[in-house]
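User: Show me sequence and structure for the first protein, then do the same for the second.

Assistant: Starting with the first protein.
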Amino acid sequence: MGPEDTDAAQTLHRDLLALLPAARVLLAERDDLARRLEVARRDPLTGLPARAAFTAAAEQLLATANAPAVLMVDLVDFKAVNDTHGHEAGDAVLAVTGRRLAGWAGPGAVVGRLGGDEFAAVLDTDPAGLPGRIAALRGLLEQPADHHGRQLAVGSSIGAATLTDHPTRDLSVLLHAADLAMYADKGRGRRGRRRHSPTAA
């Protein structure tokens, strides 16, 4: 290797060293973007898909399911848990709710947290057996959640929409129908359906 080659190699080496800070910045920005995308895709509190990711997965399932059902779930008296025991306790209730809902829905279903104390699920299930499954879900969600020795209980309002009553596979239409059914269920609760009050045993 002659002097000119040595000089060229040294120049290249210096240029590469000069590029290292910029490369580190680009890698950090890439990692930060990946984290942001993951946060946008997954609800960090429950680990469930957030709204956008839920919508994409739910639409895929709706397109292929034999008997799809869309559920909307809202927690009753959740605000009282936050007000009485603090937001950390409320977060614990949401996390437990997410795990219970996902476990109830089972493999192949799509479950997401849409925001606040509102959840949604899409599953392929026999419409005739859906009322029984919803009753089981209600009982499951109303079991107290343990938080540092405190037993925190909330109620639940659940609405469902199936192709039997709504012959469409449009997710927005079915979510709206399930949402209306959920609020009707909440109204029945106000008129006397048993509701758990937040407690601290």
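Switching to the second protein now.
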Amino acid sequence: MGLFDSIAKGFRDITGGVDQELLATGELGRGEIVGLSLSGTTVTVGNGLVERNCTFQLNVILDLQPPFQASVNQRVQEINLPQLQQPGVTVAVRVDPADHSRVAIDFATQPPEVRLPETTGPGSAASILETGKPIVVVLVANQPIGVKNFKGDPVHALTLTVAEGVETPYQVQVGNAVPASALPLLFPGSRLNAKLGDGPNEIVVDWAAGAAK
């Protein structure tokens, strides 16, 4: 990076300007906003709207790559801040493939649906299904989260009551991939066979086993 590039980057960092080259050429990914702090720096743009410099903390997922954390300094129109401060907001991001610390939010693009990489070994879904303790869970609620597993099955946030196979029933929220064949089982009150790993949150629904009795 040359002297003038460094000066330009420093100015963007102060004012929250966006790296246009990164927006144009960066790899498209999905970012969940997990933190947002506002600075005192504002800029009035040509349309008269005030933009405020913000620092975003993001969980970033690129297609078939492990998720990672990123901090992004970027200007946002103040009228859009209340929406961005809601829990669970996702945005499209552009990432430098060679340097994952370089991330920009692409507000002009819808967040893409991405696939998670396959995981193996202890703690993976396959391992828990093979060696975990059989339990019965009751579905309280479910919501697709905009990502898929490596097979292309959509991942849902499942709110479950662990009803049988444990000393004391409890409620938990987990992310599980849901194949198309299991969609008829997705309704509140559905009793499902599942497997429990080493921790109370390590629960994988055994969709192939069908509904529990």
